[in-house]
Each structure stands twice: as structure tokens, then as C-alpha cells.
């Protein structure tokens, strides 16, 4: 583990200033950049923790507040009321705006002297897992970790063809993680995602965890599954190491 420094920053995107949480190794750098994409609960304690964990592995990690357009400074816990509110804001997001804001986060990292200018990664959870699949279509993104993203096969954020139809646009490698007990993501959806990735010869791995439910990676949620989370984290580290550091 490396020593890191953290800060709250603003990412410029045309007229917007998007709040974000930045975690960076201490030192002169040459660090690969990782975009961390929130759940519907905002850039909360869990997402900040994940951002720091990634930075400690030697990456410049940034978590933009991707609800900023509809709910500035939104951050909640995991109560039923929090879930209902988060879902409300999720329904107001649009794929085009999300991609624009994630690209702005990439560009922000490119402007930091400690960060490499090529080969970025992203990781997202829940709603952010769906958004990460979208973000994988950006040319700068060479490694994507998508955790239990619901609706990839049936919808896109803001309307239009389902996100899975954009699979041919993915040029990097994507790892997708699912819990077999996740009622929000039928196994037929996972099979369809895997089939599309194979069809278009996208570099990928699909991980299915028995007894794991939605949100299994988050140790603040009742559905936390320590064994699945630990295994998934090792795969995430391998993904980023292989495709972002060993290039």
C-alpha cells in the first residue's frame, strides 16, 4: 500500500462544476487514472472508501457526483427512504449527460501532472455498475469493473435502446460481477450480457457468486458478502494491474 492524499475538487464541464472526491498517491506520479462511479446513494462514505482503496494500489482515483445535475451534494445511507430517493434521482439521469460528465472526470485527471495521459479505468456499483458499462464505450477507458449493474439488457438511462446494444463500442477489457441471489438481475440478463460480449469479441470476464445478493461488495449494507467481496477485489486489482500498469 502506498501513502495517499485526498481532497474534494470540482470538475469543469461546460457551465457545470461537478463535485468529486479525489484520492491520489503521494509522489511525482505517472499514475494511471480510475473513475469511481457511485451507487444511487451518492458519493458517500463507502464510495469514498473504495476511491481511497484504489489510490492505495497506486492509482489516481476520482469519484464524480454524477447526480449533481439533478441533486447537488446528494449523499445518503441505505435506509428504505434513502433507497426510494436515490431511485427517484436515478430516473432523472441521461446516458449522454453521464458520459459527458465521466469524460470530464477523465479530462480532469489528464490535467493533473501526476497522472498518465492514456489508459484509464473505471469501476461502478449498482446504478454505477450500469453506468460503468456505458463508460466502457469511451475511447479513453481501457479497463472496466462493473458490479451488479441492473437494467443493462432492458433499458438505458434517459431512454433509448438498451445499454447492452452498445457492446460493440467497447474497445477495452470489462469484468462484470454478479450475485446469484440478486433478484434485481435475473441470470438470463447475465447470460445475455455474456453472450453479447462474446459475440462482439470484447475482452471480458463474468464473475457469478453463489449466495451473494445485490450490493455484496458494500460492507455498509446488510447484503455484504465478505468472501465474494474479497474475491472480486482481487480480480479488480488484477484487471487494473494488467491493463493499466503493464502497458
**Structural class label:** alpha/beta
- Quaternary class: single chain
* Shape designation: globular
Largest sheet geometry: 8 strands, mixed
Straight-line distance between termini: 21 Å
Which tags fit this structure?
247 residues; 8 strands; alpha/beta; 8-stranded mixed sheet
Task: Describe the secondary-structure layout.
Elements: E1 4-13, E2 16-25, E3 33-37, H1 45-56, E4 60-64, H2 80-90, H3 95-110, E5 120-125, H4 127-135, E6 141-147, E7 173-179, H5 187-199, E8 203-209, H6 226-245
Parallel strand pairs: 3-4, 3-5, 5-6, 6-7, 7-8
Antiparallel strand pairs: 1-2, 2-4
Describe it.
It is a single chain. The chain has 247 residues and is α/β, with parallel strands linked by helices. 46% of the residues are buried. It is built from six helices and eight strands, in the order βββαβααβαββαβα. It is globular. The model has no long low-confidence stretch (mean pLDDT 96).
Quickly describe the structure.
The chain has 247 residues and is an alpha/beta fold. The chain has helices spanning 45-56, 80-90, 95-110, 127-135, 187-199, 226-245; strands at 4-13, 16-25, 33-37, 60-64, 120-125, 141-147, 173-179, 203-209.
Amino acid at each position: 500500500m502506498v501513502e495517499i492524499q485526498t481532497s474534494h475538487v470540482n470538475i469543469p464541464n461546460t457551465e457545470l462544476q461537478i463535485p468529486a472526491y479525489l484520492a491520489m498517491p503521494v509522489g511525482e506520479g505517472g499514475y494511471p487514472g480510475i473513475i469511481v462511479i457511485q451507487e444511487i446513494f451518492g458519493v458517500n462514505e463507502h464510495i469514498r472508501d473504495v476511491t481511497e482503496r484504489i489510490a492505495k494500489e497506486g492509482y489516481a482515483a476520482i469519484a464524480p457526483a454524477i447526480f449533481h445535475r439533478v441533486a447537488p451534494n446528494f449523499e445518503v445511507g441505505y435506509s428504505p427512504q434513502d433507497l426510494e430517493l436515490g431511485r427517484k434521482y436515478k430516473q432523472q439521469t441521461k446516458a449522454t449527460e453521464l458520459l459527458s460528465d465521466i469524460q470530464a472526470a477523465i479530462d480532469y485527471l489528464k490535467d493533473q501532472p501526476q497522472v498518465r495521459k492514456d489508459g484509464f479505468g473505471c469501476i461502478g456499483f449498482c446504478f454505477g455498475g450500469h453506468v460503468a458499462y456505458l463508460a466502457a464505450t469511451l475511447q479513453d477507458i481501457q479497463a472496466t469493473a462493473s458490479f451488479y449493474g441492473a437494467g443493462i439488457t432492458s433499458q438505458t438511462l434517459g431512454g433509448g435502446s438498451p445499454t447492452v446494444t452498445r457492446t460493440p463500442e467497447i474497445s477495452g477489457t470489462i469484468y462484470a460481477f454478479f450475485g446469484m441471489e440478486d433478484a434485481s438481475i435475473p441470470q438470463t440478463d447475465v447470460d445475455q450480457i455474456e453472450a453479447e460480449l462474446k459475440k462482439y469479441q470484447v475482452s471480458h470476464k463474468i464473475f457469478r457468486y453463489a449466495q451473494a445478493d445485490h450490493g455484496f461488495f458494500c460492507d455498509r449494507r446488510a447484503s455484504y458478502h465478505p468472501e465474494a467481496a474479497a474475491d472480486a477485489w482481487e480480480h479488480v486489482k488484477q484487471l487494473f494491474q494488467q491493463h493499466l500498469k503493464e502497458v
